[in-house]
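## retry 2 of 3
previous attempt timed out at serialization; input unchanged, resubmitting
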Amino acid sequence: MKTQLNVISLREQVYEYLRNEMTTGSMTGGSTINLNKIAEQLGISKTPLRDALIHLEIEGFVTILPRRGVMVNALELTDVKNAYEAIGIIEASIILDCFDRITPSHISRLEELNERMIKDVNNNDFSQLFQTNLAFHTVFNTLSNNPLFNKFMLPIKHRLYDFQGQSYIRDWELKNCEEHLRFINFLKQGNPQQAAVILKDFHWSYSVHEAFIKQFYAMTEQN
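## retry succeeded, writing output
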């Protein structure tokens, strides 16, 4: 049992290492991963490396090509559009299904996190913005009885933003915060239908944010 725990820990460490390499741009979309080189650099066998890569493939970060190696997946605008649509549908359904579980403390937490985001954006401090935004959505996403929703959405959100590096567009982030406020206000008014509309048809609408999305991904490609 002890050996198994160590193996799992090593796999997770390798996973985090590879994710960091992608986040920092050391591994870019379309490039291939040299398994022998990484195994030698980390001083590990290929077993935990392969396990970590299987995890990354499930999340969409890489594609394992039989007998040809491993390729880091480039993120296309069609991928972004599909991701926005999927997340919007799921988060809207959670609000409609779980509205009766939202308490004043949940709303206060949403307000606190959104105020923190606005303050950070205005101070040009984007270091924790992605994590704060994740925490905002987690407040209501975890109310669902279906744990697969969050397991499905979290890696997609990381792929959309964290994988691209730490480039942010101030006006876009402020627009997101404004949508958060509209969402919160509908929750306060006891109107889950309109709160769900904000999520699905505005906050996670590719067409609404298309100009910012194209600017963001063009900018990150230049980094």
